[in-house]
Design brief:
It is a single chain. About 45% of the residues lie in helices and about 20% in strands. It has helices spanning about 10-20, 35-40, 60-70, 85-95, 105-120, 150-165, 170-180, 190-205, and strands spanning about 1-5, 25-30, 45-50, 75-80, 95-100, 125-130, 130-135, 140-145, 145-150, 210-215, 215-220. The protein has a 5-stranded parallel β-sheet, sandwiched between helices. The chain is elongated, with a radius of gyration of 19 Å.
Length: about 220
C-alpha cells in the first residue's frame, strides 16, 4: 500500500516508516495538516494515518476538508485522545477508524489491511471525466458515443487515471495497481501502455488527454492552455 502519515512527532514518524517498510508498504510523512491537504491534491494513496493534535489544524478539520472536496481515501485517526466524544467526532467528521496511542505495530497494520479490503469491496459507480465515462460493471470506457476498445490491463490503467483525474499518478503506483509489481523492473512497460491508451482515447474523441509530468508520473486532465 501507498500510505500518507500526518504526524508531528518525528521519532514516531521514523518508527512507523520502518514498520511500514518491513511490511512492504511505502509511507510518505508530513507534519502539518495543510501539508497533507496540499500533498493529497496531486498524489493518490491507499490510506491516510492522521494524528488529531497537529500544529496548524486538528485532524478533524483535515478529514472534513478532504471529504468536502470529494476525497474518499480511507482515514485512520491515530491519537492520544481516547475519550468517547473524540472517537465519535472523528468518525462523524469522515474518519474510517480510530486507534489510540500507545499502540502495537501489529494492530495498526491489521487495521490498515482491513481498511484496504473494505475499500476494495465497495462497488464503484460509473465515473465521468470530461466526455469519458467509465462503467465498472461492463468494464467499458466510452468517449461521447464512441466505445474505447481496451485490453484488460489498459482498462485497469484507465480506471486508475480516471479515479485520480487531474492529479499526478506516479509510475510506481501504476506498476502496483495495474501489474502488481512492487519494484521498478527497469522496463518501459508503463510508458508503452500509456502511449497505446493515449492513441485510443484520441481516436475515440476524448476531450481530455494523458499528460506526462516528467520525473513525477502521469495525469488524465484537460489540455494546458
Amino acid at each position: 500500500m501507498h500510505l500518507l502519515l500526518v504526524e508531528d512527532d518525528p521519532e514516531l514518524a521514523r518508527q512507523m516508516t520502518f514498520w511500514m517498510a518491513q511490511a512492504g508498504h511505502s509511507l510518505h510523512w508530513v507534519g502539518r495538516g495543510q501539508a497533507a491537504l496540499d500533498w493529497l491534491k496531486d498524489h493518490p494513496c491507499d490510506a491516510v494515518i492522521l494524528d488529531v493534535g497537529l500544529p496548524d489544524m486538528d485532524g478533524f478539520t483535515v478529514v472534513e476538508t478532504l471529504r468536502s472536496h470529494g476525497v474518499l481515501t480511507p482515514v485512520l485517526f491515530l491519537t492520544a485522545r481516547a475519550g468517547v466524544p473524540d472517537r465519535v467526532r472523528g468518525l462523524a467528521a469522515g474518519g474510517d477508524d480510530y486507534l489510540t496511542k500507545p499502540f502495537a505495530a501489529e494492530e495498526l497494520l491489521a487495521r490498515l489491511d482491513a481498511l484496504h479490503r473494505r475499500a476494495a469491496q465497495v462497488q464503484p459507480d460509473r465515473r465521468r471525466v470530461g466526455n469519458s465515462i467509465l462503467d465498472p460493471v461492463k468494464r467499458r470506457v466510452t468517449c461521447g458515443n464512441e466505445t474505447v476498445d481496451l485490453q484488460p490491463r489498459e482498462w485497469t490503467l484507465m480506471e486508475v487515471l480516471m479515479k485520480h483525474e487531474g492529479r499526478i499518478v506516479p509510475k510506481q503506483f501504476l506498476l502496483e495497481q495495474v501489474w502488481d509489481i512492487r519494484f521498478d523492473p527497469g522496463t518501459n512497460v508503463v510508458d508503452a501502455m500509456i502511449c497505446r491508451l493515449r492513441r485510443k482515447l484520441e481516436s475515440a474523441g476524448s476531450d481530455l488527454h494523458i499528460e506526462t509530468i516528467r520525473g513525477k508520473g502521469y495525469a488524465y486532465k484537460k489540455e494546458s492552455v
